[in-house]
Prior knowledge:
Order of helices and strands: HHHHEHEEHEHEHEHHEEHHEHEHHH
Largest sheet: 6 strands, mixed
Distance between the termini: 48 Å
Shape: flat
Number of helices: 16
Helix content: 40-55%
Strand order of the largest sheet: 3-2-1-4-5-6
Radius of gyration: 27 Å
Structural class: alpha/beta
Number of domains: 3
Oligomer: single chain
Number of strands: 10
Amino acid sequence: MTSKQKAILFVCVDFLTAALVWFIFYIYRITTIENSEIVFKGNFYTGLVAIPVFWIFLYTIQGTYHNIKRSYRLKTLKLTLFGTIIGSILIFFGLILNDFVESYTQFYVLFFVFMGLHFSITLIPRMIFTTIYVKRIHSGKIGFNTIIIGGSQKALEILEDINNLKQNPGYKFIGYVNINGDDTLLSEQMNYLGHIDDIHQILQDVEVEEAIIALESSDHERLKGIITSLSGYDIKISTVPDAYDILAGQVKMNSIFGALLLNVTPSSMPDWQFSTKRIIDVGVSLIAIIMLIPVYITVAILVKSTSKGPIFFKQERIGKHGKKFKIIKFRTMVDNAEKDGPQLSSSNDQRITKIGKFLRKTRLDEFPQFWNVLIGEMSLVGPRPERQYYIDKISEQDPQYLYLHKVRPGITSWGQVKFGYAENVEQMVQRMKYDLLYIRNMSLALDFKIMFYTIAIVFKGAGK
């Protein structure tokens, strides 16, 4: 079962359990508090649909369905408990508090009955499904496609340590990638996939979910190079910690049966913020597309009437995890401006039309990208997407650029606010540093701050 299928299953089960809780609670309230005959009125049927929808929305914001393939029982328990407490308070004070009761004691009884019912009835099927899934992982029936990078004695020790664990932690080894020419100790244990220099081709040919780098963490330069090569892919990366890593508290254990490995790709943004960020992206984009229709029509007329060529400019860019997509902008240059190959624009670029200069200064040319955000190719805030041609150029100077592919690209970014449109590769590298800093410090608060400055640029017309 894929992560998406498991998430859909959880959504369906949560909807049904929430509806069951509302049914039981409605009967309890009528028979115990109101002391009357059971009659299903209009508010019952409304609640039978509205209440489960509310719970699904709350769980989505909470991050319950984010990265659900890696869920475990303690996490399921924690999310269910916190979600139940918050949701029960909101429902109780939003709907039930206005109901007629004889004393405040009955309010408290209703609240704790509702919360207890929802927690227990929601938790039971969740724990059943999660337990079945976890047991299948521990038995080795399912797992995450894993490669070991390195074929030396260190790699052999890691493989033996994992194989000797009482419970399988979920690694499904599909092969190893050697670092040195003489790294062949794993050749009898698993498939040889190739050399680290060919890692990009290997990852295109083989589906990989996790990578364990069999190097001492003190070997910083080689580790940095390997991690950078993997950073643009949707892969969980682990290394072997040394004594300093352990003493510094960098090794986090989720299971007492887990292997002693250091996760080097932790997310700086909690799951609930990731989910909320996506909800904001969809909501704002949908509202913007509708409300900005007059602006779109006006700009379209100006672009079409002042220069020959199409209204919109579409170009292939590289998005999250290296996926290609077509970015949409209002055209700001003369038609066929790159007939001689990829070229960056400058302040005095003769290819930019008169209306194009205004659109760039006010960022109005970026507004069609709300469609890219709506369909999930981009986000409101994130590193600006580039073409593969310039990604290769930037990576030659600083391979860390590949880190930017860990998140969705954005309409605006910290680097965009600071630099605007880059005029050369050197400025792209400078802008990249701000985007890397953004990824390391991602939060909704930082997103709002960047959007605030972007809005200020739009109204001031101060864009570069």
